[in-house]
Amino acid sequence: MHKNTGSRGRVIERSEYQNYVDQNKINIQNNAGLYRKRQEIVEHPYGIIKRQWGFYYITTKRGIKRASADVGLMLIAFNLRRLFNIIDKKELFRYLMKKLILLFAPLQTNLASIYRIIFFSTEIIFIKNHFNKLIKSHLISYRKPELVFLKFNGGF
Fold it and tell me: Is residue 9 part of a domain?
């Protein structure tokens, strides 16, 4: 929006969003403490990721979903780094080991079942092989059963 100020030819320009900008300034002034707290808590990670780690922009990915995935990985890395600085490393290791044990407990039960099945199968194979050796050495007389085929001629 343009407005002519007079004979000198000066023009004042005002954005179509200027009303929103003015309202935002008023909100910031009325809630200065809240905005300061937001700067301390929320904006701090973005500042570190952007300025200290050098992630000013993402050019390797096309599309919002892929770029969002990259930003998500950056934030995960930030949170893990923060976690390592806050929590004692031995305590964190113990906690993660407990979680891994809980995660793999059902798998351990399944592996035990699979092991029993495999072990039972190998036992059966061992017995079969041993039995075949006995047959071949004629320790046991073994005769294949004769098959009897019946013919049906269609009459009773």
Answer: yes
Q: Give the position of tokens 């930030």.
A: 78
Cα separation of the two ends of the chain = 109
Burial class (CB in 10 A: 0-12, 13-18, 19+), 45: middle
**Tens of pLDDT, residues 3-59:** 555 667 778 888 899 999 999 999 999 998 988 888 777 778 888 888 888 888 777
Count of domains forming the chain: 2
The answer as to whether 118 is a domain residue is: yes
DSSP string, 33-97: HHHHHHHHHTHHHHHIIIIIS------S--SHHHHHHHHHHHHHHHHHHHHHHHS-HHHHHHHHH
pLDDT tens, residue by residue, 99-128: 887 777 776 677 777 777 777 777 777 777
In terms of Cα–Cα distance, which of 92, 94, 63 is closest to 79? 92
What is the helix, strand, coil percentage profile of the chain, to 5?
A: 65, 5, 30
Q: Which domain holds residue 132?
A: 88-140
